[in-house]
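Pasting as-is:
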Amino acid sequence: MPELGGKRHLRDNGTLFTAAERAHCRSRPDPDASLTGLFSAKEAFVKALCALEDAGDAPAYAFPQVEVVHGPAGQPRLRLHGDLAAWCAERDVSVSVSISHTGSTAGAVVVLQARATTGGGRCP
């Protein structure tokens, strides 16, 4: 599990989370567990992105550009921003995410589906 408990500066300064993500997590019964789940989703996205064939061409980005939002029933979704969003849109990349957390453990799975390309499977 990513450990954010003692790293308040990472939770609160915008380095990892958007203002909306922090507000959502503060509204939850266990804000730290919720933030850890969101961090797990962002990390899972990066790992899934690295598996795409043309990932070496992906633009540089920061974690707040990979934003976890929630649908009407609370289901998590990833909203990409900036050049990363444009890069994924150009390649018809669709994103699915599942997040799970308990008091001491968090995990996430991200699946990216993209149309076939030619490339080398490099990580940005």
